[in-house]
Amino acid sequence: MSDSVPNKITLEQSEIPRAWYNVIPDLPAPPPPPLHPGTHQPIGPDDLAPLFPMDLIMQEVTTERFVEIPDEVRDVYGLWRPTPLHRAHRLEQALGTPAKIYYKYEGVSPAGSHKPNTAVPQAFYNAKAGVKRLTTETGAGQWGSALSFACAQFGLDLDVWQVAASFTQKPYRASMIRTWGANIHSSPSELTAAGRAILEADPNSPGSLGIAISEAVEMAVQDEDTKYALGSVLNHVLLHQTVIGEEALLQFAKIGQTPDVIVGCTGGGSNFGGLFFPFLREKLAGNINPRIVAVEPAACPSLTQGEYRYDFGDTAGMTPLVKMHTLGHDFVPDPIHAGGLRYHGMAPLISHMYELDLFEAVAIGQEECFESAVRFARTEGIVPAPEPTHAIAQAVREALACKESGEEKVILTALCGHGHFDMAAYDAYFDGQIVDHDHPAEEIAAAMARVPQIAN
Ligand SMILES: *Cc1c(COP(=O)(O)O)cnc(C)c1O
Cys staple from 413: which of 25, 170, 263, 269, with CB 3.0 to 4.6 Å? Predict the structure, then answer.
C-alpha cells in the first residue's frame, strides 16, 4: 500500500465521546428563530411541548457548547460505536490519484446508517419523560428502522409513516421496522386527515417526506402520551450526530493527518453536520483549514436552487415556520433512489451556515452517483446506500482533480449507510434504467409560489 496508514483506524469503546458539540455559540451570528405558523411570532419551548419532551426542547435551544451524553445512551452507542475510519487505499489506486481518501463508516450500526446516533437519545429522553408512544415519518426506511431499534431499547411503542415510493421500492426496510416492534403505514394513508386530503387529489401519490411528517405530527398532537420524533433537520438531531465528527477528529489525530476537503451528502443535513461541525470548530479556532462541501441530488437541490426564506417543515403546514433553503413545502421530488435526500427543505442551522459561507454546495445527478458507488464497491468492498453515493461521487471528483494537479490532498467523507436494502436501485443502474431527473425548475417555481410571505 502507498503509505503506512492502515485500511481501518479504530478506537476503543472507552473513547466514545462524552459530549455532543453544539456549533451555534461558535457562529458569528445565531440562526433566525422558528415562528408560530399562526401569529408569525418566534415560538418558545412551550409551543413545542406537545411534540417533544422538554430535555430535547432544551437541547434545541441550548447555548452551551457541549452537552453531556447520558451513560444510558453511551451504553447503547457501545453496541456499534466508535465507528471505524477507513482509508480508501484501493479506491485511490483505481483512480490513480495522489489524494488520500478517508471515509467514516456509519453502516456498522444495527440499522445500517448514522440515524441511530440520534434515535437512541431521542427514545431515551422520551422514555425518561414518561412518554408511551412515538410517531414518525421515514423516507427510505433508514430513520424508521433506526427509531424502531431505539424504541425497543427503551420500551416505547412506535408508529411509522413511510413515503409510499420507498414503501414499494424497499419492502425489507418495513420488515426490519416490524422486527424491532413498530407499526408501519404507507404514506399518504387513510389514517389521517392530511393523508386523506392528498389521496383525494392524487390516489397514486408517491408521497414525500413533507406529507409523511404531516401525518405523524397529526397523530402525535391528538394524544397526550404520544410524542413525535424527527430524524433530521432539527438542532438537537444535528447535535447528536456530532459523535461522528468528534470520533473522526480523534482518529485523524492518531494518524497525524488533517483533512483538506470534507464532503457529505445532504438530505436534511444531519450526517453532513454531524461530520463537519467538530472540524469547523477547529477551523474557526485556526487549527485546521479544510474546504467543506455539501452534495445534494440534482432532483431535489434545496441548497443550490432553493430560496432562503421562512417555510413549513411539512406539506400540510402544521409545523412551525423555519427559515431554510426550501423548494416549497408542497414540492414533491421525483422518486429518485436516494429516498433519504427527497426533502423539500434543509436544516435551518445548515441553511444559516450556508448563508454565512461556511461551506460550499453542489448538486449531482444519480447516474454519476451510481457510477462512483460501483467503483467504490468494487475496490473498497462496501456497497453504499444511494444517499452517500452523492458524497462518494464528489470525493471521486476531488480525487480526480488532484490527479490533474498532482496535489496530495486529504479527502474525508461520511459513508453514512450501507445499501443492502437498496439493491433494486443497483439493478436499475445495471439495467440502464437510472434516469437523471435534472432541473425540475417549473415544479419548484410552482411550489415556491405557495410558500407563505413573511416579512423577515
Ligand atoms: C436519512 C439518511 C440521509 C439523509 O439525511 P441527513 O439528515 O441529510 O443525513 C442520508 N443518508 C442515509 C444513509 C440516511 O439514512
Answer: 263
Distance CA 152, CA 147 (A): 8
Q: Which atom of ligand 1 is nearest to the CA of 269?
A: 8
- For ligand 1, atom 2: residue with the closest CA: 340
Q: Do β-strands 226-228 and 307-312 pair in parallel, antiparallel, or remain unpaired? A: unpaired
CA 388 to ligand 1: nearest atom: 11
* Residue closest by Cα to atom 7 of ligand 1: 270
- Give me the average pLDDT of each 10-residue run along the chain (456 residues): 83 98 97 93 92 97 97 98 98 98 98 98 98 94 96 98 88 94 97 96 90 94 95 96 98 97 96 98 98 95 94 86 93 78 91 98 96 98 97 98 98 97 93 81 87 80
Residue identifier of the C-alpha nearest atom 14 of ligand 1? 340
Ligand 1 atom nearest the C-alpha of 233 is 7
Query: Ligand 1 site: residues with CB under 6 angstroms?
Result: 113, 115, 142-143, 232, 265-272, 340-341, 385, 387-388, 416-417
| Dist. CA 191–CA 219, nearest whole Å | 9
**Which amino acid is located at 293 in the chain?**
V
Q: What predicted TM-score, i.e. pTM, was given to this entire model?
A: 0.96
pLDDT recorded at residue 456: 60
**For residue 148, which of 417, 138, 140 has the smallest C-alpha distance?**
138
Helix (H, G, I), strand (E, B) or coil at 300: coil
Q: Which amino acid is at 141?
A: G
CA-to-CA separations, 417 to 55, 116, 383, in angstroms, rounded: 28, 11, 9
Residues 295, 314: Cα–Cα separation, whole Å:
22
Residue nearest to atom 15 of ligand 1 (CA): 142
pLDDT number for residue 314: 84
Residue 7: which of 261, 380, 407, 415 has the closest Cα? 380
**Distance (Å) from CA 162 to ligand 1 centroid:** 15
In the chain the domains, ranked by start, together with CATH numbers, are 8-17+68-112+236-448 (3.40.50.1100)
Residue 223 has what pLDDT? 94
Q: Where are the alpha helices (DSSP H) in 291-337?
A: 302-305
Report whether 410 contacts 100 (CB < 8 A). yes
